[in-house]
UniProtKB/TrEMBL annotation:
Superkingdom of this protein's organism: Bacteria
Main location: membrane
One matching Pfam family: Xan_ur_permease
GO molecular function: xanthine transmembrane transporter activity
Keywords on record: Cell membrane, Membrane, Transmembrane, Transmembrane helix, Transport
Membrane topology summary: Multi-pass membrane protein
InterPro entries: NCS2, UacT-like, Xan_ur_permease
Official protein name in the record: Purine permease
PANTHER family recorded: PURINE PERMEASE C1399.01C-RELATED, URIC ACID TRANSPORTER UACT
High-level lineage: Bacteria, Pseudomonadati, Pseudomonadota, Gammaproteobacteria, Pseudomonadales
Membership in a protein family: Belongs to the nucleobase:cation symporter-2 (NCS2) (TC 2.A.40) family.
Gene Ontology cellular component list: plasma membrane
Transmembrane segments: 20-43, 55-72, 84-104, 110-130, 137-158, 170-189, 196-219, 239-260, 323-345, 351-372, 384-404, 416-435
Keyword Heme found: no
């Protein structure tokens, strides 16, 4: 009990920033994760044949749950929440499964939400056991996973920078110009300015990019007037959840994959913020993931997890305060109640996000490379571990159809480069180092705690 209370009252490593600066850095986090937050309800809603109004409701529901989960993850409530600067949102790991469910007779949205609730409950049950895997993530594995996270995010940034997948002129010069301008502003601020300006460099770059994109006619505000001023998300908007065995089993597997991804990301964030993530902290973080998923099913949204791209922002700005992400969570809750404000954020052109994404996702990969320096990377077998794990992690990124002929239930694993790289790194570390005998432990001492 003393140990827990001591953890809960421990001061954060990053001092609290002035209110305005904290608010601006929080806005950066919201802008960065917003595209991912709205993408999942957009994809699933369209697959289910929902109307534009119903999809808008799905988006607001997702923003509400993401905001609540972010606040809990950042600040902690009882035994839940890792108390680190984490942004939460709907996970892409479940998208392929939910698209299939949306088209299945007798499943639809109530079946998806029922499976989400059941998967969240399953996650709450297994979190205390999964947290023990932290010892399977020495710097050798953690560095490999974080590098793979950064590399697997690059296609997202490149897609944004080219104008987004929905554009008919992908890679057109105006899109590339806007993305380059955003990136140039971020780089120049980090080179010539200090302190506050560096902390909000991404926001400034995106703001200038938004103005430039608007002058080029890229900003589409059609439909803004039709959006209601205020809208409250109500539970079970699409009817009572339905609990069907096949969807539930599929979503439970998704939760396991989310836990593997989240474990890697929490450990990555611990390295960036200078905090050691022990099994107890990891359990708190995973319980928040599972709890958010459980709540999400009742509130008309989907499985939730931490967002890797925001870890890049923490590294990029150097602002490691959990109060920043807690405020960002409150902003998400506000956006869920104000559809017009949410609409304006959603109008940010993809090219603007792309310029910022190239810098931030690259910073994630750079952090992984830095962590690998703590391991015995001169050893040939450790080099093989890094090479093979990153290579396998890139397979779903480079050729998503590579695993198309494997069983359907494996899709949450095979469609996630992060999950593939993590499983490979953990397995090869067990083979090469843990099971390699005392002489291997002596050789790889730098790779173990």
């Amino acid at each position: 009990m003393n140990e827990v209370s001591e953890r809960e009252t421990a001061p954060v490593r990053e001092p609290r920033l002035p209110l305005l600066q904290m608010l601006l850095v929080s806005v950066q986090h919201v802008l960065l994760m917003y595209g991912g937050a709205v993408a999942v309800p957009l994809i699933v809603g369209q697959a289910a044949g929902l109307s534009r109004e119903e999809i808008a409701f799905l988006i607001n529901a997702d923003l509400l749950v993401a905001g609540i989960a972010t606040v809990v993850q950042s600040m902690g409530i009882g035994p839940v929440g890792i108390r680190m600067p984490v942004m939460m949102g709907a996970s892409f790991a479940a998208v392929s499964s939910m698209v299939v469910m949306a088209g299945m007779p007798g499943v639809g949205m109530p079946g998806i939400f029922g499976a989400t609730i059941a998967a969240g409950f399953f996650g709450l049950l297994i979190a205390p056991f999964v947290c023990k895997i932290v010892r399977l993530f020495p710097p050798l594995v953690t560095g490999t996973v974080i590098t793979a996270i950064g590399l697997s995010l690059f296609p997202v940034a490149v897609n944004w920078a080219g104008g987004g997948s929905g554009t008919g002129q992908f890679g057109a010069l105006p899109y590339l110009g806007v993305a380059a301008a955003v990136l140039a502003v971020i780089l120049l601020i980090n080179q010539f300015l200090r302190g506050f300006w560096v902390n909000v460099s991404v926001l400034i770059g995106m703001g200038m990019g938004y103005v430039l994109a608007g002058s080029l006619g890229m900003v589409d505000l059609s439909g803004l007037d039709a959006a209601p001023a205020v809208q409250v998300v109500t539970p079970n908007h699409f009817g009572a959840p339905q609990f069907l065995l096949a969807p539930i089993l599929s979503m439970c597997l998704v939760v396991v994959i989310i836990f593997v991804e989240s474990a890697g990301m929490f450990l990555a964030l611990g390295k960036i913020t200078g905090q050691e993530v022990d099994p107890r902290q990891l359990r708190r973080g995973l319980l928040c993931d599972a709890g958010a998923t459980f709540l999400a099913g009742f509130m008309n949204t989907f499985t939730h997890s931490s967002f890797a791209q925001n870890i890049g922002l923490v590294q990029m700005t150097g602002v490691r305060s959990r109060y920043v992400t807690a405020i960002a969570g409150l902003l998400l809750i506000s956006l869920s109640l104000l559809p017009k404000a949410a609409f304006l954020v959603a109008s940010i052109p993809a090219a603007v996000l792309g310029g910022a994404g190239i810098a931030m996702f690259g910073m994630v990969a750079a952090t992984g490379i830095k962590i690998l320096q703590e391991a015995d990377i001169g050893d040939r077998r450790n080099q093989l571990l890094v090479a093979v794990s990153i290579g396998l992690g890139m397979v779903p990124v480079v050729r998503p159809e590579f695993f198309a002929h494997l069983p359907h239930w494996m899709e949450p694993i095979t469609h996630s480069g992060i999950a593939v790289a993590t499983l490979s790194a953990v397995t090869l570390n067990l083979l090469f180092n843990v099971l390699g005998g005392p002489e291997r432990h002596a050789l790889t001492g730098a790779a173990h705690h």
